[in-house]
Each structure stands twice: as structure tokens, then as C-alpha cells.
Amino acid sequence: MNIAVRIPDYSPAPGPIGGPLAWQSAQLSEDTSWVHHLGPDDIAELEAAAEKSRSDGLAILDIRKDNFALPLVSRKVELLRHDIMNRFGFGYMRGLPVQNYDRDTVMRMYFGLSAHLGDVVPQNRNGHMIGHVLDIGTDVNDYNKRLTQTSAELSFHSDACDVVGLLCLHTAMHGGESALCSAIAVHDEMMRRDPDLCRALYQPVTVDRRGEIPEGKQPWMRIPVFMWQNGEFTGYAPLPDYIRSAKRFEDAPKLTELQERALDLFFTLCCDPQFAVRIPFEPGDFQFVHNHVVFHSRTAFEDWPNQADKRHLMRIWISLPEGRELHPAIAERWIHITRGTVRGGVNIPNRKALIIPMEPMTPAFS
Ligand SMILES: [Fe+2]
After folding, report:
1. 40 Cα–ligand 1 center, Å
2. 176, 185, 265, 291: which could form a disulfide with 301 (CB 3.0–4.6 Å)?
3. Contact 177, 279 (CB under 8 A)
């Protein structure tokens, strides 16, 4: 029997890619059109939509674009979508007075606004459809936990979905700033400085799955950092800790010496102020980042002594209905990658298992 084995094409881009998504940090201080502001009418509309969804007896999980009408706000969401997909690879919506609302109301607004952008997908194996990003004292050395629920610095990385959203409820006493860099700008700089190192990142890198292992898969995965398919770029930045801890698996392919050097240059460039833009969060800020073209990080932080004041962001993972064409190597990490379907997130076969934890102390994993 003749079985055709499809070998992924890891061919690199022919050179620097350029275009509007290849921004450097200085451009973002000159052009701040990536920030959209919610005015009083927008806020009143979100409040009314949240109230209506509650009086209709709708669970937050059942909120959809068509049952959460936002005639005004949805126009701004369309601008935001354009920024995310075509202009900057990210966008902000600012000005929701989060301190005026109870948790249920804020979550309804967040889920409803996000539903106008795309389809919300589960972000961890507990089926969380909104997650709490705050320090709950998770041990950074626990290989089966994520680092989001600590106060540690998070290196530049990408999440396993088209768009990751964060809504800020409280900021830290010190630090905890968000930073973004354009994956394409970093790629292009590597291509100009050292094409061999750049091309080394078009070969798969071994990454620890940290306990989130789809059926039939290894506890580690192999995905390149840079991918090029039909003239389209896909970027994937694993956390360095997850690359390091993958070395515990004896059967997993090791990084080449060239890849080790390439990753050093890659993470150095991501952090370089020429490419990294630091954006302080304010309560009421929504940040949305397109993971395939922009990488995100956060600085370490020192928190307030009172539990109620602690840095607290709520996270949402979104599948874009008309998202980018993705390189097949991403299928190693995602359930499926087909454009035009709900894709990305963590595989939760039973929809009944999806939940929205109201309280921040719920660990992302049990
Ligand atoms: Fe992240």
C-alpha cells in the first residue's frame, strides 16, 4: 500500500516581510490610533445590553453577537478588528468604569463585547471561558502549572488562540506592565542581521506542553517560531521556561546549537526597546492581541497588601471567524486550524464542562 506522508513545508520567507504589521515601538507613540475610547453613549449601551441579558435569563456563556445588541459599540469593535488584523496586530478599547459594576455585570460586558469580535474558546483544561490573571501564589517551578497566576515576569510569548484579550480591573503596586512586539519586525531584523539564525527558527523547536496533553500526543510538541505558507507569515513564541523544561524528556529532539543561538537573539530583540513597546494598564482597559503576528509579555510586579486591591486582569481567548491562514505546524498545538471555523483554545470535548469562574482564587488548573 502506498501511503502518502505529508511533510510540512518549513521553507523560510525569501527575505524581510515588511508591511504595516512590522512596526517598531517609536511608530506607536507617533500613531496612537490603536486606542479606541468608550464614550458615555457606548458605556450606557453596554450597561443596557448587560442588564437585558440578565433579565432575559441568559447565562454569560450563552451571550452571542446576535443576542447582545451593541449598535454603537460594534462600530468601534469593527475598527478594533481592523487594527488587530491588518494595521497593528493589536488594539485597545479604553474607558469602561469597571469599579461601578459587580463582577457579573463586568463579565457580561466583556463576554458580549468579545462576542462581537469573534468566538470565545476555552483557555485551559478546566474549561475556563474567562480566566483570572492574578498572583495566587502558584510555584513558578511547578512544571504542571502555567506562570500566569504568579507575580513573575513573563517573557514574550504567544497564546494558543487567534486573539487574546485582557480586561484590567486592578493594577499592581509596582510593575506588571504589558509589553508587545511585532513578530514580523523581529523576524525582519533577524533576517537582515543574521539570515542563518533567522532560518534556524523556521525549523521546529521542542516545547513542554506543561501537562496539557491532547489524546495521542507526546507531553512535548515541535513547532517552529517562524512559519511561511502561501506568502503568509505565522509567528509562534514559546515561553523560554517551557523550552528549558522540555529538556527533561529524554526522547524529545534537542535544539541545535544554531537554534540555541537563534533563540538568544530572538528573545533579545523581542525585549529591545526598539521593538518592544511597554503599555501601562489602567482599570477599564481592554487589550486584544493577535497572537500570530504580535508577541506579548509582562514585567514582574509587586502587589498591594490587601487581597481586594491586587493586580487583577480577566483574560479571554477568541477565535476570529475570518482569521489568518495558518501554517500546518500550528495543528501540533491546536485542536484544528481551519480558517473560518471556531479554532484554537484548549480541547474540551464536552461543552457542558465550560465554565466562567466568578472568583479569582480559582486556580487555572486543579
Ligand atoms: Fe499570554
Report:
1. 31
2. 176
3. yes
